[in-house]
Amino acid sequence: MATNSPNAALNKDMTRHPIGTAAKVDGERTELTLTRHYAAAPEEVWAMLTDPAKTPLWWAKTRGQAKTGSSFDLKWLNVKDEGQGIETDWWYGRIVEATAPALLEFSNDMHGRIRIELTAVDGGTELVFRNTVAVQEEVVLMSLAGWHVHLDHLQEALEGKSVHWQQWWDDFYPCWQQAHALYAGS
Q1: Cα separation, 72 vs 157, whole angstroms
Q2: Do the bridges between strand 79-81 and strand 30-38 make them parallel or antiparallel, or are there none, so unpaired?
Q3: What's the rounded mean pLDDT across residues 99-122?
Q4: Confidence band (pLDDT; 50, 70, 90) for 2?
């Protein structure tokens, strides 16, 4: 990992949060579930999930509004192309339900259905993340590891830090590998 990288101050230990689970919904779909506790209030976490100025700090570019029925598109920032981080095309989505600051549920043409529930607990927030996807079996653990790393990046963003996406592959692909190994071993 690059020591002089702007990402050097970010957490790279993927064991600090518990691993998520995968459960078959039916013959085609699997539900991925991850639970996290953040010291921030639900309103702060909500802003990180829905504010287009904040989502790139930890996750993806977003466009649309966090209002039931509105479009909500994602553009991933950590995709690799010949050694360089590049942005993807927009992946189109729609808000199924949005109740600030407690529930964000949306569909996405690449990531299926995502439901994020926020509950105020002990001066912070419990986040329950569910992603129902129709992917091949070998992609399930890859997806769990990916969400694990992104939700870890959310922790960092809530603490005022930001991922520098152009160096993500050098700095965080090994972290994704660590998270994937955790899921493969569970």
Answers
A1: 21
A2: unpaired
A3: 96
A4: very low
Question: In one letter, which amino acid is 14?
Answer: M
pLDDT in tens, 40-60: 999 999 999 999 999 999 999
Burial class (CB in 10 A: 0-12, 13-18, 19+), 87: middle
Distance (Å, whole) CA 116 – CA 95: 12
Compute how many other C-beta atoms are within 10 angstroms of the C-beta atom of residue 129: 22
H, E, C per residue of 10-75: CCCCCCCCCCCEEEECCCCCEEEEEEEEECCCHHHHHHHHHCCCCHHHCCEEEEECCCCCCEEEEE
pTM more than 0.85: yes
pLDDT above 90 as % of the chain? 68
